[in-house]
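REQUEST FORM: STRUCTURE PREDICTION
Request ID: SP-0412
Submitted by: Lab K.M.
Chain count: 1
Length (residues): 181
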Amino acid sequence: MGNGELVVEWSVVQGAIGPLLLAATPTGLVNVVFHARPAVRDRALGRLRDRLGAEPVEAPGSTLLATPEQQVAAYLAGELREFSLALDWSLISGFHRAVLRELAAGVPFGTVVGYGDLARRVGRPDGAQAVGAAMGSNPLPVVVPCHRVVESDGGLGGFGGGLETKRQLLALEGILPQPLF
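STATUS: Completed
RESULT:
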């Protein structure tokens, strides 16, 4: 590593919602990917390689990954309510980063927020659709809890990990989603 090249390490954590790929840099956790079976995992690693300009190295339990692995596993087991992880925000910028930072800081475990409410919190009261786009591009789902963003009428809205995964995460937090009919 002496040449100043970025280090990206990854591992897969198993949980009730299926395998999650976790990737970290020396700055912090940089990516969480749902359904990290081999084909999905390989595509995600390719995207990381392209976006960060570094070859991701599998390193379960490494110094960079040990705490994220422990906290994600504890959260998925219902034993952790709040993450205390260093995050690397380099995969997201601008409005999307502002929205995700507000979500991470301002929507605690066991609560939900509407797309429009979140847009207002970041100073874009007409930006509900843009908030939806930010949720869809969230590189750190679960840890930056985009599953807690729902439609104002009680509908679940979309979710990159699939609606069943969103339901499972909301149930884990004790939030019973409204019927969708």
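NOTES: DSSP finds six helices and six strands in the chain.
Reviewed by: T.R.
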